[in-house]
């Protein structure tokens, strides 16, 4: 397909013509190198062409095809004005190392303008414009010729195999790797969806084909079994985002199903998906959401009066959650429990939903990544529009939208009364457009007719209160007794308690105002461990030792503008008059940590005394995924300064007498790894004295 763009290409108007300068083919036809001289009509101002004295520019392009290694390398450089401007470009097509059905494409170029009649900046802009347009057009061109080949009936090119003489030679030589002969792929196997790798296995040996498992992330069967139908581009996005997480979030990588939810929520835009996924992972870690099902017991008021619960599954195998909102006393629940307790209960419901999706995936043998929610609005009235109740509902929607994207497969709203449009007007602006498309609303008894409930739920499991025969164990709700109401002060204290039950602390880091933590070590050979996330900006992490204690910590004046609440602070311990090397010393090399990275590590102390962990401002805080300023950054610059970073951290000291295991394999029991992860590695390791792992 690539060769078809020569000698000229109608899709590239500036590519006027090309001539072959030299050509080489190896005896076994595995190597084909061809060099061409290409004539280009550059889109440049007429005045510039007149000054330069040329109408066209010439490039030399060398294409090297290696059929044995299955690679195509393309090198190009300018011939015209080569003494004034040096342009080098390199492109390569290769087979993906983990999935031979994928083609990898890489492209790079360099431009060095020495002099150009005083028009250096103009030439640079022209070159960048041409290069950018070529990149955008590259995929379109290759797909055009691929389609052209398909129309001509060419859908498969046999893989290169060495001639018979070469095969005989390779069989007698111990220095060459034998090449497997080509195997014809039967049509039946292709229709059944077997990958080439599996077909080769079944053809060459009697061993049973190995089904895809979660350990083989690129296996076609694994993708079909656990992830669903994905285009090659979507698969590529998943692999790239997971690889980035592996590099920056050591040992705490969410499962592919969870990463996919965030990619789908942002239409497979990797940059946007990466940003919201990192924010969600930090949120889960800070509030220990991973442990909510095991450690948090809902208050009895919720168990008695929250009219919602899980009820079998829909026709697609999705877990079914039933919510009798019209029968629920939202005002009474908010008055008795507060907003935070309600939010935590909804989070536990979502966590249970994720668990049920995994179970149903195993039971039904196909990927199930979302659930169906059935909301019965019979009984909905103006009491449900109580302002604090609506405020709590909007807060819950905001948190769920941010941290559980693409988990709602379908929302069936039944028996919507006249007051429903008022509630919908208040709520709908906070719901994502993709989520809104999954809503089906039925007024009165319309759900019993064509296109109603029976289209989505089997008759046998329709709840009894909707006219079905299945007993539904969802609480009936009802009014919460006023004797259970609590004062505003009691609720406020309870809310703070709920969201401060975390081992992690938040800190603000400003330019010129690092955040520092003091750790006193009595016995040498103790182990200091740390686990922190860089939530915003780039920071430098340092560890210092001092024989004398610093002055009592003073909160920096900027700390009043804490980014997080509660717990965001900025503490400085090292006195301005202290000198490095005299009053204190550095015991670890500085570590630069980028926004979005998660860092775990340890340090084996050599001396008793005072150790200071320091997070210091490194560069302009910017979004890790875009050059555009974020709203948070703009607001921060108005309040204090744009030079602001944020970290969330946890530290622990393990005494030498309590330490178990070797110093080269330190594992902290408080690493806070996400339960969304598959098998994880240890939280940190130590080389001789310490090592920081990402």
From TrEMBL:
<keyword id="KW-0597">Phosphoprotein</keyword>
<keyword id="KW-0734">Signal transduction inhibitor</keyword>
<dbReference type="GO" id="GO:0005829">
    <property type="term" value="C:cytosol"/>
</dbReference>
<dbReference type="InterPro" id="IPR036273">
    <property type="entry name" value="CRAL/TRIO_N_dom_sf"/>
</dbReference>
<dbReference type="InterPro" id="IPR051064">
    <property type="entry name" value="SEC14/CRAL-TRIO_domain"/>
</dbReference>
<dbReference type="InterPro" id="IPR006797">
    <property type="entry name" value="PRELI/MSF1_dom"/>
</dbReference>
<dbReference type="GO" id="GO:0045087">
    <property type="term" value="P:innate immune response"/>
</dbReference>
<keyword id="KW-0399">Innate immunity</keyword>
<dbReference type="Pfam" id="PF00650">
    <property type="entry name" value="CRAL_TRIO"/>
</dbReference>
<protein>
    <recommendedName>
        <fullName>SEC14-like protein 1</fullName>
    </recommendedName>
</protein>
<comment type="function">
    <text>May play a role in innate immunity by inhibiting the antiviral RIG-I signaling pathway. In this pathway, functions as a negative regulator of RIGI, the cytoplasmic sensor of viral nucleic acids. Prevents the interaction of RIGI with MAVS/IPS1, an important step in signal propagation. May also regulate the SLC18A3 and SLC5A7 cholinergic transporters.</text>
</comment>
<dbReference type="InterPro" id="IPR036598">
    <property type="entry name" value="GOLD_dom_sf"/>
</dbReference>
<feature type="domain" description="PRELI/MSF1">
    <location>
        <begin position="1"/>
        <end position="154"/>
    </location>
</feature>
<dbReference type="GO" id="GO:0039536">
    <property type="term" value="P:negative regulation of RIG-I signaling pathway"/>
</dbReference>
<feature type="domain" description="CRAL-TRIO">
    <location>
        <begin position="298"/>
        <end position="474"/>
    </location>
</feature>
<dbReference type="GO" id="GO:0039552">
    <property type="term" value="F:RIG-I binding"/>
</dbReference>
<dbReference type="InterPro" id="IPR001251">
    <property type="entry name" value="CRAL-TRIO_dom"/>
</dbReference>
<keyword id="KW-0391">Immunity</keyword>
<keyword id="KW-0963">Cytoplasm</keyword>
<comment type="subunit">
    <text>Interacts with RIGI (via tandem CARD domain); the interaction is direct. Interacts (via GOLD domain) with SLC18A3; the interaction is direct. Interacts with SLC5A7 (via GOLD domain); the interaction is direct.</text>
</comment>
<keyword id="KW-0333">Golgi apparatus</keyword>
<dbReference type="InterPro" id="IPR009038">
    <property type="entry name" value="GOLD_dom"/>
</dbReference>
<dbReference type="Pfam" id="PF03765">
    <property type="entry name" value="CRAL_TRIO_N"/>
</dbReference>
<dbReference type="GO" id="GO:0005794">
    <property type="term" value="C:Golgi apparatus"/>
</dbReference>
<dbReference type="InterPro" id="IPR011074">
    <property type="entry name" value="CRAL/TRIO_N_dom"/>
</dbReference>
<dbReference type="Pfam" id="PF04707">
    <property type="entry name" value="PRELI"/>
</dbReference>
<feature type="domain" description="GOLD">
    <location>
        <begin position="500"/>
        <end position="653"/>
    </location>
</feature>
<dbReference type="InterPro" id="IPR036865">
    <property type="entry name" value="CRAL-TRIO_dom_sf"/>
</dbReference>
